[in-house]
Amino acid sequence: MSxxxxxxxxxxxxxxxxxxxxxxxQSLLFVDIMSCELHRYFPASGRHQILHINDCGTGKxxxxxxxxxxxxxxxxxxxxxxxxxxxxxxxDVDDKTVDPKVVLQTVDEGNPTNRFNDGKCDPCGRLWxxxxxxxxxxxQPDLHKGSLFSLDSKLSISQxxxxxxxxxxxxxxxxxxxxxxxxxxxxxxxxxxxNETTGEIGNRRKVLDYKSSGLAKDIPDGMCIxxxxxxxxxxxxxxxxxxxxxxxxxxxxxxxxxAQNMTSVxxxxxxxxxxxxxxxxxxxxxxxPNAKYGGATFAITGLGTKGQKPSHFRVDLQLLRTxxxx
Length: 326
Ligand code: BGC
Ligand code: CA
Description:
Layout: E1 5-10, E2 16-22, E3 27-32, E4 37-42, E5 47-53, E6 62-68, E7 71-79, E8 82-87, E9 95-98, E10 102-106, E11 115-121, E12 127-132, E13 146-151, E14 157-164, E15 167-172, E16 178-183, E17 188-195, E18 200-209, E19 219-225, E20 231-236, E21 240-245, E22 250-256, E23 261-268, E24 274-280, E25 297-301, H1 317-322
Parallel strand pairs: 5-9
Antiparallel strand pairs: 1-25, 2-3, 3-4, 4-5, 6-7, 7-8, 8-10, 11-12, 12-13, 13-14, 15-16, 16-17, 17-18, 19-20, 20-21, 21-22, 23-24, 24-25
The protein binds beta-D-glucopyranose and calcium ion (CA).
């Protein structure tokens, strides 16, 4: 077996999150949530592009970013409590500021301080994204204020789960029958039956309970799946990324990381065999000897497995275009 390597690849941001590999550009997209910025890193050249998004009243944060199928320069983002589209291309200058092109939906009207956190597309191209309550101390938001939503190709939104504290990791099995999900403050990774035709989920059960698995201090955060069906989870306050075999309900590998607060992971690189991992500097004590790594993005290599091309948002582009003049 090859040796596992961990290397910092991008300079620290504040709250790095939502990594997504863009096959067409061979680049890594990620967000800096509270700075309301998108970042794009090109491993081949080391280039690092930044897009600042004017919130235009939606709430100054960006929780996730996913390209649109058929027009990868259009990106759907979770902006405050809204789902919006921004346009950003590798041909743009390295530091740019834009307004969102269009706001698609706004949620959680009764909880105005909520914000979108993690989001991803299912194998059929529906967008799934969840919210969380107002957070002053990392890991201690107002509890049970968020929900998990899905948005279909016709831009119709469904509320799939309620009373979520921090909506985080999302992953689907390759047979499209199971959905894995993390509400961080349940301190567990959960599984649901997933119906790809209707987009419904049900039969929630625990895959791994953190507190009874020796992870009492860790908060499960972002997650992705590999081709073997195992889950890779970033542990906030845990200084590690773990690999879980969800069928056995067991941790099968632990990767120690330089940064205390790991936030999310995704597969990328030309062969999808590099695990990119984001982190946060929020909640890191200045006395931590590794404080300088807080917010950095890392590449983990030599894991002996890989992922697949991530799904894009399969929206009806004609319908979307009627919402703005393109
Ligand atoms: C959120 C942070 C939160 C962390 C805790 C992240 O996904 O964006 O605000 O502190 O989860 O695990
Ligand atoms: Ca996250």
